[in-house]
C-alpha cells in the first residue's frame, strides 16, 4: 500500500518537528518535506508533489491561506489541512474559501491530525467541531481582498507612502481603501480597525 505523502509548512521549528514526529510514526503516512514558510512550501510543490499539505496560517512570506489558494489553483489534486491556534470563525471561513479541506486547532488531541490527513486524502472535509458550530452565527467578513491586505499592512505599521509604492497605487487610493475599511468596521482609525479585524479572523 502506498503511503500518503505529506508536506509540512510551519514557521516555529519546535512545532514543525513535533508535527513531523507525530505523523512520521503512522504506518500509512510519510512526511516528504518540512519547510518554514508558505513560499518555501509552494516552491517545493513542483518537485515533491505531496498528497496533503499541512500548514499553519500565520507564516512569513506567504500565509497558509495564500498557500491554500495557490495549491487549489495549480495543484488541484493536493489537499490542504490548516493546523492553527486561531479558533475564530472568520479564519475558518477564509480557509474554506481558499480551498482548504481541513481546519484543526493545535490544542486538539494529536491523533486527530493523522486522522484528518487520511480523511482529506479520501476527499472528505475535516473541520474542528466546536468551530464549525460557531461559523453559522459568525458575522460575514465585510472587507474586500485589497482592503484586507492594505489594512493588515497598515496595522503592522507600514506607512501610506510605502504601501502605495509597493502596491503601485497612488497614496490617495491607498487612503481611500483604508477609509473604506475603517468605515465598514466602525473603527476610529486604522490601528483600531486592524485590531478589530484581527480579533474576528478577517486579517
From TrEMBL:
<dbReference type="InterPro" id="IPR016032">
    <property type="entry name" value="Sig_transdc_resp-reg_C-effctor"/>
</dbReference>
<feature type="domain" description="Response regulatory">
    <location>
        <begin position="5"/>
        <end position="121"/>
    </location>
</feature>
<dbReference type="Pfam" id="PF00196">
    <property type="entry name" value="GerE"/>
</dbReference>
<protein>
    <submittedName>
        <fullName>Response regulator transcription factor</fullName>
    </submittedName>
</protein>
<dbReference type="InterPro" id="IPR000792">
    <property type="entry name" value="Tscrpt_reg_LuxR_C"/>
</dbReference>
<dbReference type="InterPro" id="IPR001789">
    <property type="entry name" value="Sig_transdc_resp-reg_receiver"/>
</dbReference>
<dbReference type="Pfam" id="PF00072">
    <property type="entry name" value="Response_reg"/>
</dbReference>
<keyword id="KW-0597">Phosphoprotein</keyword>
<feature type="domain" description="HTH luxR-type">
    <location>
        <begin position="136"/>
        <end position="201"/>
    </location>
</feature>
<dbReference type="InterPro" id="IPR011006">
    <property type="entry name" value="CheY-like_superfamily"/>
</dbReference>
<keyword id="KW-0238">DNA-binding</keyword>
<feature type="modified residue" description="4-aspartylphosphate">
    <location>
        <position position="56"/>
    </location>
</feature>
<dbReference type="InterPro" id="IPR039420">
    <property type="entry name" value="WalR-like"/>
</dbReference>
